Amino acid sequence: MKAKDIALKTEDQLKADLVNLKKEAFNLRFQRASGQLENTARVRTVRRDIARIETSLRQKALVKASA
Fold this sequence. Notes:
By secondary structure, the chain is mainly alpha-helical. Helix content is 84%, strand content 0%. The protein has a single domain (3-66), classed as Helix Hairpins (Orthogonal Bundle). Helix 2 (11-34) packs antiparallel against helix 3. Belongs to the universal ribosomal protein uL29 family.
């Protein structure tokens, strides 16, 4: 997920994406622990997407608070 895509989404859409990504991260952790994980790079991309969304939500909250 690109930063531009995230910037264009509303807070509700970002929160929904965040929930889905956290569920996926949870499942990936279990797959890694049980040795079933095939795409190990997906763990990294999911973690980074979560961080991007949380950063964007924080920035939007700061803008809203200062206005």
